[in-house]
Every structure is written in C-alpha cells, then in structure tokens.
Amino acid sequence: MKTLYIVRGLPGSGKSTFAKSIGGIHIEADQYFMENGKYNFDFTKIKLAHNYCQTQTEAWMKNDGIQVSSNKIVVSNTFTQEWEMQPYYELAEKYGYRVFSLIVENRHEGKNIHGVPDDKLEVMKNRFEIKI
C-alpha cells in the first residue's frame, strides 16, 4: 500500500526525529536550507523551500512505487493550517497514496534547534488548526 504520512507540530516538538523513525522517504522544507551539512535558514526563501518539498514529494510519488521505499513517504513540516497540507492531499489522490496526518506534541520540553523566537512559536501555536 502506498502511504503518505504528514507529520505536523511546532518547532522543537520532534517532528523530524519521529518522521525518520517511520522509515521510507523523509522530506521536509528544512532540507532546502541545508548547505554542506549546515542549516542556513533564510526567511525570504521559505516559499522556495516549501515548493522544493512539494516537488520532491511528487517526484517520489511519480516513481510509482518502483522502489519499495517510495511506497512510504513521510513529509514533516509545521503544517499549522489546513491549507498548508492541501497540496499533499491532492498529490496523494493523484498518485493513489493513502494519507495519515500525525501531530507531534512537545511533551518532552524539546527546544527548537532553528532558533525560532518564543513570540513566533506562540503565534504558530495559536493558529494551529486541528480537524478531528
């Protein structure tokens, strides 16, 4: 079965760690900012990073499961609002993937390694949409 996992949560919650534990192909917008093994975030390029993430996801889906690992794709981003996930749901429908959306809570008091200021974390927390 072809499966897409959408892993959501605030910075520092452990999204990436959890996503990697699922196995399969792991994709996230943060990968766009990696240069020579170092994370160089540039807010002016955030849209490019999310386009990269969607493009990579579709490229693996187009692979049509030829590689076993492409049957399981894990995308981890903050995804605080429904519209941010919509392109992935559309890709899943287009390529026949079943979708699971998972929220990672920061119950371990993890710290975000990307230096997101506390006031920005609060804004993200307040706009986090959950559909049950």
**Uncertain regions spanning at least 5 consecutive residues:** none
The global form is: globular
The largest beta-sheet arranges its strands as 2-5-1-6
Q: What is the distance, rounded to the nearest whole angstrom, between the alpha carbons of the first and last residues?
A: 24 Å
Structural write-up:
With 132 residues, the chain is an alpha/beta fold. It has one domain (3-95): Rossmann fold (3-Layer(aba) Sandwich), CATH 3.40.50. Helices cover 37% and strands 18% of the residues. The chain contains four helices and six strands. The chain has helices spanning 15-22, 46-62, 82-95, 118-127, and strands spanning 3-8, 25-27, 34-35, 38-39, 72-76, 98-103. The strands form two sheets. Strands 2-5-1-6 form a four-stranded parallel sheet, with helices on both faces. Strands 3-4 form a two-stranded antiparallel sheet. Strand 3 (34-35) and strand 4 (38-39) form a beta hairpin. Helix 2 packs parallel to helix 3. The mean pLDDT is 90.
